[in-house]
């Protein structure tokens, strides 16, 4: 059984068919990068896998369960970092992480996580006053605090400075090395090249190709494959 399974997934919003029969899987101990142009359906897929959207048809499964209406035990095994974070604006990062840690039976150590993600540098600043990149770091910490078996990251390094991006890529690899299935939606070829074992390329709600990075790209660069599959030809 794959940790994450998307089969014939369809989801429309009015006349917009955000997902049009998407198929792919993500495995434990591996990082899967989902690439695709704006509007390809990446976030909608992640929202279906979180149980935040109900698919019109098809299968979205995480750890063998349907995330729609899943139990609290199931949700505790899944970490999520969304594009806009959704963090409480008046909380300081340590207070937020301590609060979240108290909800899990066996959480990560909030202090160690803060130190690792450089959150200590702005520990006294409330979330509302943080820079975009600082907020991203806190959002990543909230996704990791429950030591998830499956980790969904939607454009995790967008807005981060180069040093922080390197740290985050290292942390992502560590999560997979520890056995987690990591699913990462990204627009960065560098990010996919550096961290991903497996690649999914989506366009217009469908999967154009998926599989191990070496098989998807072959002798070409990931960038060339991406452009040829998403309608613009190689550049
Ligand atoms: N709640 C919603 N209501 C209406 N349309 C939506 C909703 N969510 C997504 N869509 C539409 O579904 C399509 C897929 O959007 P989605 O956010 O999944 O794409 P994406 O691949 O994540 O894009 P991006 O790279 O810009 O983040 C888009 O046309 C978007 O406008």
Automatic annotation (TrEMBL):
Keywords, comma-separated and alphabetical: Antibiotic resistance, ATP-binding, Nucleotide-binding, Transport
Its membrane topology: Peripheral membrane protein
Name the record gives this protein: ABC transporter domain-containing protein
InterPro entries in the record: AAA+_ATPase, ABC_transporter-like_ATP-bd, ABC_transporter-like_CS, ABC_transporter_ATP-binding, P-loop_NTPase
Localization annotation: Cell membrane
Domain of life: Bacteria
Higher taxonomy: Bacteria, Bacillati, Actinomycetota, Actinomycetes, Micrococcales
PROSITE patterns to which the protein is assigned, alphabetical: ABC_TRANSPORTER_1, ABC_TRANSPORTER_2
């Amino acid at each position: 059984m794959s940790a994450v399974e998307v089969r014939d997934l369809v989801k429309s919003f009015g006349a917009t068919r955000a997902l049009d029969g998407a198929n792919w899987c993500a495995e434990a101990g591996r990082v899967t990068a989902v690439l695709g142009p704006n509007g390809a359906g990446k976030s909608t897929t992640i929202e279906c896998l979180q149980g935040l959207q109900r698919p019109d048809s098809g299968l979205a499964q995480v750890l063998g369960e349907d995330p729609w209406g899943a139990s609290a035990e199931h949700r505790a095994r899944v970490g999520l970092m969304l594009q806009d974070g959704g963090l409480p604006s008046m909380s300081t990062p340590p207070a937020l992480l301590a609060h979240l840690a108290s909800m899990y039976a066996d959480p990560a150590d909030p202090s160690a996580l803060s130190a690792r993600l450089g959150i200590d540098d702005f520990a006294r600043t409330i979330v509302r006053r943080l820079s975009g990149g600082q907020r991203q770091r806190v959002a990543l910490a909230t996704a990791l605090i429950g030591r998830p078996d499956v980790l969904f990251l939607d454009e995790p390094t967008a807005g981060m400075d180069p040093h922080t991006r390197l740290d985050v890529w290292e942390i992502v690899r560590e999560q997979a090395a520890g056995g987690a299935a990591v699913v990462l939606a990204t627009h960065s070829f560098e990010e996919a090249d550096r961290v991903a074992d497996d690649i999914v390329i989506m366009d217009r709600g469908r999967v154009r190709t998926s599989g191990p990075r070496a098989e998807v790209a072959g002798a070409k660069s990931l960038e060339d494959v991406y452009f040829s599959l998403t309608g613009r030809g190689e550049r």
